[in-house]
Amino acid sequence: MQFIDLKSQYAALKSEIDAGIQRVLDHGQYIMGPEVKALETALASFVGVRHCITVASGTEALLIALMALDLKPGDEVITTPFTFAATAEVIVLLGAKPVFVDIEPDTCNIDPTLVEAAITPKTRAIMPVSLYGQVADIEAINAIAARHRLPVIEDAAQSFGASYQGRRSCGVSTVGCTSFFPSKPLGCYGDGGAIFTDDDALAQAAREIRVHGQSARYTHTRVGVGGRMDTLQCAVVLAKLPRFAWELERRRQLGARYQQLLAPLVTEGRLRLLGVRPDRDCVWGQYTVFVNDRARVQAALQAEGVPTAVHYPKPMHHQAAYAAYATADACPHSVATGQQVMSLPMSPDLSEADQDRVIHVLSNVLRA
């Protein structure tokens, strides 16, 4: 059983993907070829914003977004410690300070009721993470940001395609950033990412920053990076787009089926499920549950051929590289959650038979 079944997805799209790659090989424009603009136009329309800027990775998307906002050394960015390192990493790389705010224990997203108290005169932005495929409570965060005239950057690496109050993830805040890492809801066959915004000035800045700060060839208007998304990777994502609506619906169906069939284990107190708020959906970038004695449970599942993963075992302020930014006892929900989360197989091509097997084996392990 595959934890994420990319082989079946490729088999379903082989002719389209192969043809898209061949077109790039034929025209030879491997950097900033026509597929780049075509993908940006398609994705901007999908999200419902004016601008999409493709970049080299989801990490690069966050970095370039912060650079476009002119983040300076000594500035502060409020974010969550319960995330992949990239979220905090880009803040520190620019000499700024991540200010960690704890999560909601049921959604694992940043708790908006704690955000305002973390704002200081040095706060420059708020960066919520839409974890596991569910958009964070952006309405509440945007309201706080508006009061303090702060931009909001949604780290939507796991939630591309999700909806929040009728709007798409990446189109609900000042800037949205996503990743096209192969395992994400919409993935390429390497690294890739994108920035989304309705702000013309930010979009122009991001476009210049991704090509070493150039406003024209050899005219360096600002400090930038080599942050372009390869034409070949854009061709892959373009080929995947026609199937993406089906994949999102399939993710929702499989997620709902997991929630329903695992409910008896919740009633028995053996398992806890992720909470999904009624004003949004979840595209299950990861299907994650909460268990006690996780190491035993994972080992027992692995012995039965059921792969699992942990997203994420330790919050950022318990990582050596970021320990200086918060005390060890800060953000207790993030710490406790890191000890319990376990992700189960999830992808649009997961068969119901395989899903039934996961549930059967997990039930036996937890009841043992």
> How many DSSP E strands?
14
Compute the separation of the termini in Å.
23 Å
Please list the strands of the largest sheet in the order they lie side by side. Answer: 1-9-8-5
Please state the CA-atom Rg, rounded to the nearest Å.
20 Å
Considering the protein shown, what is the CATH homologous superfamily of the largest domain? Type I PLP-dependent aspartate aminotransferase-like (Major domain)
pLDDT averaged over residues: 98
Structure description:
It is a single chain. With 368 residues, the chain is α/β, with parallel strands linked by helices. It folds into 2 domains: 6-238, Aspartate Aminotransferase, domain 2; 243-367, Alpha-Beta Complex (Aspartate Aminotransferase, domain 1), CATH 3.90.1150. It is 40% helix and 14% strand. The chain has 10 helices and 14 strands. It has a 4-stranded mixed beta sheet, sandwiched between helices. A hairpin with a 2-residue loop joins strand 6 and strand 7 (167-168). Helix 1 packs antiparallel against helix 7 and helix 3 (58-68) packs parallel to helix 4 (85-93). The longest helix is centred in the last third of the chain and has 37 residues, at 231-267. The model has no long low-confidence stretch (mean pLDDT 98).
